[in-house]
Every structure is written in structure tokens, then in C-alpha cells.
Amino acid sequence: MSSFIVNIVTPDGTIYDRQAKFLVAKTQAGSLGVLPNHAPLISPLSIDAVRIDLTDEDGGQSDWVAVNAGIIEIRDNVVSIIANSAETEKNIDISRAEEAKKRAEAKIQKAKSQDDKEIDLARAEIALIRAINRLNVANKRR
């Protein structure tokens, strides 16, 4: 079966490096599905889950990774994701993600009630999206 390599790198190093038969990521232009021999591409990523369908030799299951923005590059059967931060579903601390969600929701309420600067509201909204993304990916393993 045809496959490609998936690498996910953050400033802390490589967090994912495996063979896959299919990948789905959300770019700023919409959802992107990747199969072997995909045309070369570079695109900015949105904060979202990346689904990686493993080869049959690796059990054929899917891995999930919470990606907090970055870029995806596809070239020569290698998919490289360079992200500000990313976590596999196995490495997400659910209680920490739930606390981050609560903090972000509180900051959003405070920013709205006090007519805080738009930048504070925007940061809180992004933090909330990241926390929800992490929780969604963590729940994929259950």
C-alpha cells in the first residue's frame, strides 16, 4: 500500500513522526485531505485537530493531534507540519485543558463586561479555541 511520512514539529522538537495513508487538516482556506503522491503545497493551518490514518501495517487506526496554528508543507510524500504548539491525544492533560478553558471563558466575560481592549478579548477567544481543540482531541482516545 502506498503511504507517506507525517512529521509534526514544534519549537520543543518533533512530536510526531510516522507513516500514514491519509491525513486531514484544517487550513485557513478550508479542510485539506492528503493521500500519497499529493501535489506539492504549503498552506497556513488553523487551530484544529489533525487526523492521521495510519497504514494497515501499523494497525490502520487513526492518531489525532491538536495543532495550535502553524503551516503544512507537502512535498515528495512527506507531510511536514510546523506548529507553534501541538499535542497528541495521548499527551494532553485533560484537567489542565479544562482549567485553561475556564480561565479563557472568565477572561472573555471580563473583557466584554469592562469594555476591555479588543486585543485582550481576541487573545482570550484564541485561548478558548485552543483549549476546546485540546479537549476535543483528548476525547478522541476514549
Main traits of this protein?
single chain; ATP Synthase, domain 1; alpha+beta; 5-stranded mixed barrel; elongated; 142 residues
* β-strand amount: over 45%
CATH topology annotation of the largest domain:
ATP Synthase, domain 1
Specify the number of helices: 2
CA-to-CA gap between the ends? 29 Å
Major β-sheet annotation: 5 strands, mixed, barrel
SSE sequence, one letter per element: EEEEEEEHH
Number of domains: 2
User: What's the CATH class label of the largest domain?
Assistant: Mainly Beta
Question: Mind telling me the CATH superfamily name of the largest domain?
Answer: F0F1 ATP synthase delta/epsilon subunit, N-terminal
Radius of gyration: 17 Å
Q: Strand arrangement, largest sheet?
A: 1-2-4-5-6
GO molecular function: ATP binding; proton-transporting ATP synthase activity, rotational mechanism
Organism: Vagococcus hydrophili
Protein name: ATP synthase epsilon chain
Membrane topology: Peripheral membrane protein
Characterise this structure.
Residues 91-138 form the ATP synthase epsilon subunit C-terminal domain. Residues 87-141 form a coiled coil. Keywords: ATP synthesis, Cell membrane, CF(1), Coiled coil, Hydrogen ion transport, Ion transport, Membrane, Transport. Belongs to the ATPase epsilon chain family. The protein is of the alpha+beta class and 142 residues long. The protein has two helices and seven strands, in the order βββββββαα. A five-stranded mixed beta barrel has the order 1-2-4-5-6. It is elongated, with a radius of gyration of 17 Å.
